[in-house]
Amino acid sequence: MILPVQFCFNSVSPQAQENLFDILVFDNNNNNKLFPGCVPARCFSFGIGEGASSALISGVAKQGGGHAQFITGQDRMQPKVMQSLRFALQPAVVDISVKWNVPKGVSVTPLSPPIRVLFQGQRALLYAQVTGESLGDTEGSVTVKYSLAKQPVENQLSFSLKPAEDTG
User: Fold this and answer.
1) What average pLDDT does this structure show over 93-107?
2) Is the entire prediction scored with pTM above 0.70?
């Protein structure tokens, strides 16, 4: 499996936005692996059947900045392929970073894994644990930076660190 995938990646034109659709069919005895860092194109992967390796399918899509789909049992393939095709035909939100600005004495621990890519219609939730106490300032903010269609974007949200009153 490595040689066909490497051939596809080596054929990618650096001037063009390329997408690779990877359809992998596995039986329970198949344990193929791809090497991290070998994916220069957005890679959309499909795992077909109960024996498809979720780690491999998800890993290929994650490493390639694409999307993974699993087709099992009575699932219809067409809607899942069409969704991935819609994702491939539009710019994706990439280079996502999150920065917390909180007063001295307060710390933020991210609880969500980093988000690498978002496609139109997808949602993302970021969870974080805020701990500590601030003697003065009761305001904080979170800044999310990303690129969309090669244009940098920045959004900032301010929030209060003051506990809400219990209205009972």
Assistant:
1) 94
2) no
